[in-house]
Design goal:
The chain has about 260 residues and is of the alpha/beta class. Helices cover about 40% and strands about 20% of the residues. The strands form two sheets. It has a five-stranded mixed beta sheet with strand order 2-1-3-10-4, with helices on both faces.
């Protein structure tokens, strides 16, 4: 099926890498980690240290919208670890019995921000001002993208849903939203703070109040069908180490322990 083409290709490449890696576990394939697109930078940076510590082949990644990754897993994609930017995709997999029992855990937090192109004229733009005539097109994640879910909750909170509906441009990932804003293809968009730190080309004009949307929690779990459940569990644990959490902070994420109750 089309949705499975990318993961299956990655697994094939991973097996080839695994066979050639000296010092790694004999003939063991790499873990396949399906993760929210916003995690791509730090996860790739942390892959080599994890492999050295475990004497394993570095993980291979399939990045995309959390909802789309969830659908791929439900259709049989051979994934070892899933990292979602929202609870809904993980809840769906858990209800379907596809997660390894007891493996699900919260990993990180983030902030939702309203951004404009960095080169746009300096101006004040509050979230409430999105309904005004000075804002045309607003990029937002589509129904598969948790950042889009949070953004729609913010619009409801500010009573803007109907007023901005004609302006919304739904896109298939939060990174697609960020790229559209940075390129000036839209006037504004909702992304994570980590996207601003990692990608550049964006200027934050407002931060969504924490009370305006559900808490942003990145959660991870091992899939019940994982070929290497113990290594997959070790990978999840590694994301909570001080070194990994420090890396995530540098990339604009938020440790859950940093949050004020």
């Amino acid at each position: 099926m089309p949705l499975l083409a990318v993961p299956l290709l990655i697994v094939g490449l991973a097996a080839a890498v695994g066979g050639a890696a000296g010092g790694a576990r004999a003939a063991a394939p790499s873990l396949l980690v399906s993760a929210a697109a916003s995690l791509s930078g730090p996860l790739q940076a942390l892959a080599a240290p994890f492999a050295r510590a475990q004497r394993a082949v570095p993980p291979q990644f399939n990045f995309g919208a959390s909802g789309l990754l969830q659908q791929q897993i439900q259709q049989g994609a051979p994934v070892d670890v899933f990292l979602s930017a929202g609870v809904r995709p993980m809840d769906t997999l858990e209800k379907a019995g596809l997660l390894l029992a007891g493996s699900r855990r919260d990993v990180l937090g983030n902030r939702l921000v309203l951004v404009v192109p960095a080169r746009a004229p300096q101006r004040t733009l509050a979230i409430a001002g999105l309904a005004g005539p000075g804002v045309g097109r607003i990029a937002i994640g589509d129904g598969t993208v948790p950042a889009g879910d949070y953004a729609r909750q913010v619009l409801v909170h500010f009573g803007l849903t109907a007023a901005v509906a004609p302006k919304l441009v739904p896109l298939g990932s939060v990174r697609a939203v960020a790229r559209a804003v940075a390129a000036g293809n839209v006037d504004a968009g909702f992304v994570y703070r980590s996207d601003v730190v990692q990608l550049g080309g964006l200027r934050v004009v407002a931060t969504a109040p924490a009370t305006s949307h559900a808490p942003i929690r990145y959660s991870g779990a091992v899939l019940r069908g994982s070929r290497q459940p113990q290594l997959a569990l070790a990978y999840l644990r590694s994301l909570g180490t001080p070194a990994a959490q420090a890396r995530f902070r540098r990339e604009g994420f938020e440790s859950l322990s940093d949050r004020v109750p």
